[in-house]
TrEMBL record:
Keyword ATP-binding: no
Superkingdom to which the source organism belongs: Archaea
Protein name according to UniProt: HhH-GPD family protein
Species of the source: Natrialba chahannaoensis JCM 10990
UniProt feature, compositional bias: Acidic residues: 1-13
Coiled-coil region(s): none
Keyword Cell membrane listed: no
SMART domains documented for this protein: ENDO3c
Disordered as annotated region, ranges: 1-37, 90-113
Length: 299
């Protein structure tokens, strides 16, 4: 009989953009021998070093909230803000405390779900200064609290509830979902793509954050001058759809541990990086110890 304690722990950190242990990810595996592009080879190596997964199944509005909270800060700082927000606004009783009876009177009843409030309805009626205080650990809390209330109001106006918004994200064509989300204040391409990936479970979506943007230009896989959208286009064209999700999360881990912004591992030891043989080191100069953004590297 197998003992659960003997199962290997999930290698992805609990505190991560994917939602950690409640993120709805599923471990999977791929054959690295079949990689057809350099970008795919990089993702395969990251998969061997960190994890190989598919994502999807997160509640779409909760995912939107998590991604807005994570903007311009680390997951370590945004996770406590997320937890505090859910604690305060994510339960029926707390919703009644925070918003009063008027919330339901204006928007109609929310689906019964074991004491959980409809988070969009609760946040649409949240008091801004109280929400700002609740999420203060995430930084930029005034701005983010306004964005969250605006996004919640938008979800309530357009869809009626977080549950209906979730259906939209899961069922509609990805391009339609993306374009619709991009019209919401505070939602940029990375946030829209994270919702498509972690909630919609859409393959072929490779969100580009600051680590992904830096690393694939450094490697010479994307042009040095490429903006976030251009890097995304390269990766989504060159990495098979099923590998894009963990390609995103594992690249972030690689950017934190190895190819960091100021001190990539190869600066001191060329052997220290598992990508050394397939990396162009654009803007990285081990001879002098200098590092510049690839866009500023002389051509
Ligand atoms: S060789 Fe250097 S620049 Fe290239 S991926 Fe590795 S650490 Fe980053």
């Amino acid at each position: 009989m197998s003992d659960e304690s003997e199962q290997p722990a999930d290698p992805e950190p609990d505190v991560n953009i994917s939602g950690g242990t409640t993120g709805g990810d599923v471990a999977t595996s791929f054959d690295p021998a079949t990689a057809e592009t350099r970008a795919e080879r990089v993702v395969d190596r990251l998969g061997e070093r960190y994890w190989q997964k598919t994502y999807g199944g997160q509640d779409a509005f909760t995912c939107l909230v998590r991604t807005i909270l994570s903007q311009n800060t680390s997951d370590k700082a945004s996770q406590p803000a997320h937890d505090a927000l859910i604690e305060r606004y994510g339960h029926s009783s707390s919703r009644a405390d925070e918003t009063g009876a008027s919330a339901e009177a204006e928007t109609g009843p929310t689906p019964a779900n074991d004491g959980e409030a409809d988070l969009a309805v609760a946040l649409a009626h949240a008091e801004q200064s109280q929400l700002a205080e609740t999420i203060s650990s995430a930084g930029l809390y005034n701005q983010k609290s306004e964005m969250l209330i605006g996004a919640a109001e938008w979800v309530c106006d357009e869809f009626g509830s977080a549950a209906e918004f979730d259906r939209f994200v899961t069922d509609e064509a990805p391009d339609t979902v993306r374009e619709t989300l991009l019209d919401v204040r505070g939602v940029g391409p990375k946030t829209a793509d994270c919702v498509l990936l972690f909630a919609g479970g859409r393959g072929g979506v490779f969100p580009v954050d600051t680590h992904v943007h830096r690393i694939y230009r450094r490697m010479g896989i994307a042009p040095a001058e490429a903006d976030h959208e251009e890097v995304r286009a390269v990766l989504e064209a060159e990495v098979p759809a099923a590998k894009c999700g963990f390609g995103h999360t594992a690249t972030i881990q690689f950017g934190r541990e190895c190819c960091t912004a100021r001190k990539p591992a190869c600066l001191e030891d060329p052997e220290a990086c598992p990508m050394a043989d397939i990396c162009d080191q654009v803007g990285v100069y081990p001879e002098t110890g200098e590092v510049v953004d690839p866009a500023d590297a002389p051509t």
